[in-house]
User: What shape does this take?
Amino acid sequence: MPDMAIQVKNLHKSYRQLKVLQGVEFVVEPGCIFALLGPNGAGKTTLIKILSTLLKPDSGTALVNGFDVVAQAAQVRHSISLTGQFAAIDELLTGRENLIMIAQLRHLKQPLRVADELLERFGLTEAANRRVSAYSGGMRRRLDLAMSLVGTPPIMFLDEPTTGLDPEGRLEVWQVVKELAQGGRTVFLTTQYLDEAEQLADRIAILHQGRIIASGTLQELKKLFPPARVEYVEKQPTLEEIFLAIIGQKEAC
Ligand SMILES: Nc1ncnc2c1ncn2[C@@H]1O[C@H](COP(=O)(O)OP(=O)(O)OP(=O)(O)O)[C@@H](O)[C@H]1O
Ligand SMILES: [Mg+2]
Assistant: This one.
C-alpha cells in the first residue's frame, strides 16, 4: 500500500478562460475520511473528476493509490469507485439488475449474491425487482451508493453523497461511510453540509478561489477562529431531532 491514498501537487484546471483549480495541494492518508468543502462552483466536482480520471488536469500531479491519474489511469480506475453528484443508474433496469451489471463489469464471481447482500444492506430488498424509474430520490441515492460498494476498491469518491436525502437517509449514509472507513477504506467526499463534515470527517479541507485555503482536523480548524465565548442558553431540540423522534414514533406504532 502506498504511504498516501491520495497525493495532489500544484493542480491546475481551467475551462477556457475560467480558472477553476489554481494550485491545489493536499494529501489523504489511507483509511481516513476526508471531506472537501467549498461553495457552489468552487471546483469540487472538477477535482473529483480529475482524481477519478474522467478529466485531465492542465498541469500538476495527482497520485491515487500510488498511481498517476494521467499516466496510469487504468490502475487508478481499478483502485477506486465513484458516486457522482448525479446518479449513474440505468433507469430502465431494476435495482437488482443495476447491481448485477456492475458486479459483472467488475468480474466478480457471484454477481447475484453480491447484489442481494447490498440490496439487503441498503434496505432495498423489497424494491429490488422494480425499475429504478419508479424509485424515490432517496432510494436512488442508496442504490447509487450500493453500486459503489460492488467489489472492494480501496478508495471511494463520494460527490455530495447525501444531497436530496431526508435526515434518516443521511444518517444511514453516514453509518455506511463510517463502517467503510473502519474497514480500512479511504473515503474522499464533498459536501455542502458543514454538520456532515463535522460528524464524519477525520480531516477537512476547504476549497476556495482555486486553492485549498484551510485543512486539518476539526479541532485544528476550530483553532483558526477566536476562542468561543461561554453563554448559557436553554438547549432546544433541533428540527432534525424532532423530525427523527416523530418518524421513530410512527414506525414503532
Ligand atoms: N464542462 C465544463 N465546461 C465549462 N465550465 C465548467 C464545466 N464544468 C464545470 N464548469 C464550471 O467550473 C466551475 C466549477 O464547477 P464544479 O462543478 O467543479 O464546482 P462544484 O464545487 O462541484 O460546485 P457544486 O457545489 O455546485 O457542485 C463552475 O463555475 C462551473 O460552472
Ligand atoms: Mg459539484
